[in-house]
Amino acid sequence: MPSPFPRLLKPLFLSTVISISSFCTAVYAQTKDEGNLQYIDPHIGNVGALLEPTRPTAHLPNQMIRMLPVRSDYIDDQISSFPLNVVSHRLGEVFSVKPDNKQLTAASWDERMAYDHDLEVTRPWYYSTYLIDKDITVEFTPGKKVGDYKFSFPAKSASKSILFGLYNDGVANFTFTSGNELTGFETYHDDIKVYVYGRFNAKGTPGIVKDKALVQQASVDGKDLKSYITFAADAPDVIEFKYAISYVSPQQAKQNFNDEFGSAGFEILKTAGKATWAKVVGQIETEGGTEAQRRSFYTALYRCNERMVDINEGGHYYSGYDKKIHDSNRPFYVDDWVWDTYLALHPLRTILNPKLESDMLNSYVNEYEQSGWMPTFPVLFGDNPCMNGFHSTVMFLDDYRKGIRGFDINKAYEGVLKNANEATMLPWENGPKCELDDFYHEKGYFPALKKGEKETVSLVHGFEKRQAVAVTLGGAYDDWAVGQLAGELKKTNDEQTFAKRALNYKNLWNNDKQMFIPKDKDGNWIDIDPKFDGGLGGREFYDENNGWTYLWQVQHDIPGLAGLMGGQDKFQARLDQLFRESLDRSKYQFWAKFPDATGLVGQFSMGNEPSFHIPYLYNFAGAPWKTQKRVRFLLDVWYKDNIFGIPGDEDGGGMSAFVVFSSMGFYPITPGKPVYTIGSPVFSKVTINLQNGKQFKLVANNCSVVNKYIQSAKFNGQVLNKPLFTHEQLMAGGTLELDMGPKPNKSWGI
């Protein structure tokens, strides 16, 4: 299996053998004996199956400063630049930086930098790479609102320059003062000023690029700015740049710098970051399993701590929801894609860090109060209209039922109720409802267009289409969550209203095809091939997946879904068929239309979020042993510990949380119900150190790669004959004990 650490290095020339070997030895000494940290490899999944790769991000858990080298993916052997901050997951960076030791020209900023993969060190708290052509080593370590770069130039280098540029098109500024200070701002997403304050460890001569010429000038305003600072030959060979970022003001950027750095340097920041990560990944202790399984597991746990991020800066934060600066001593979190994260990431956080989850919910409530809508994809600039559904509603219900408090639940309910009754359900749109929403509220389903029928509703997204079946099924789940939350809050009328709306999924059940099939506005079925129709991503009817995936999108009423299929036995047979059903065409034909539906097993797609719960449905179909078989198979086939080891878009923790839960041996199949269903753990023992001082333990006796089937089970010493336990049992410090074997016990758990 590949290692995240440098292997024996191939010397570029004889005179460098000793120095590079020493570098390799030093790095190895930093990474061995690290406990669970040694298993984190940010390179896992850095080459996407078809679409987006994972990012090898250096950052502190859930903090603002994030950095990764800008390149297409891990196969790319050139780096374009290094950002001072990744503002939002896959939604942009600010302030590019790169070193150079050659005579600068206007084209230097566009030059890509070759690097050697074997000389790249990527740890959550530290990054280093060697730029081959320039003979420069770049190092980085993150803080909360600060970062620290070190650029090691060749000894006695005649030229040492640090180049700065922009990633965004808006107005910006760079100003150099005192020969070693940099201030400025870059405009992100049209109107958000991101401020920087930084210091170098040496004084240099600043300049800009103007009219394709290099000009010695200390300050510049405008768009598409390029600036630099050049150091004398007798300056240190290691140029260090310490900086802070602020979304509030230039003064706050400098305050952030002083608050975090003080007299601290690179090594202190790096050591503190490593200790922070050790605490986070040490919260879950594992025994047994293979090294590959541990690498996949702890890397997934690392990725579960990238988002959301706290942008409160010393009691102040900028909100993109009302474009104002707010005073608050409480964290303010942004950067969440709920369509991806409500399924497993938020539920995982209710176990590992309830206080953090509480602060995130409080941020959602603040964002609702500031914008007038409960967000679904809250990012720095506001609610980003992505995907479909109001799944933040499910998140609030799930957390509330799991005892998460510390936010205004009545205000939260006000927000989710407003979304349910007044917001448009159209994919990739925010704001008030339209005629299609009124139709849904009256008829109980979202109407689809017939094949070839021209769109008449201007609000419908030209690419994303109506997604009529997906919207109806997601809306039923969200409406169920509104009704259940209403019941928790003793709002009886709302509870009854939304209990009826929760059954809207049945309005699109076609008994002949045994599928959820679209209807037109007149209530007529639209005759489609649910495997392949609907345009790119099936978006006219489904979303990113076909009808086989959306056949199972009724997590809130699994018995009701089984009833539509004719009972438990037929439900189980239909699940079997899912994993065996042919594509009826070549893979390249299928993926040309459904590029998100990767990680295929029959018609099942491991590479997209709507599939996560499906293998666990066997627990409700009279065959828990098939869940055990399927989950182990899926983890082994699609989550390898290498650069291809993520079967689809990971989405900043959405997919990784599935890996964490499934590897531990249980899963929150229905967010909103505080219950976990049991799979097949890959470890012989899992200990979760809960923040309430207790421990939840899962012991899997005789567990191995072959021994994946549960023979019998006990919870707290009492015989357990069902594949379920509650959140309350977990948080009380319970112990789940499983006896594992190589062949299924087909009578257990039924």
Descriptive report:
Residues 252-742 form the Glycosyl hydrolase family domain. This is Glycoside hydrolase family 92 protein. Monomer. One of its GO terms (cellular component) is cytosol. Pfam families: Glyco_hydro_92, Glyco_hydro_92N. With 750 residues, this protein is an alpha+beta fold. The protein has two domains: 56-281, Beta-galactosidase, Chain A, domain 5; 284-741, alpha-1,2-mannosidases domains (Glycosyl hydrolase family fold). The protein is 28% helix and 22% strand. The strands form eleven sheets. Strands 7-8-9-10-19-14-13-12-17 form a nine-stranded antiparallel beta sheet. Helix 4 crosses helix 18 (654-664), helix 6 (345-352) crosses helix 7 and helix 9 packs antiparallel against helix 11 (468-488). The radius of gyration is 27 Å and the shape is globular. The two termini are 38 Å apart. Mean pLDDT is 95; it is low at 1-30.
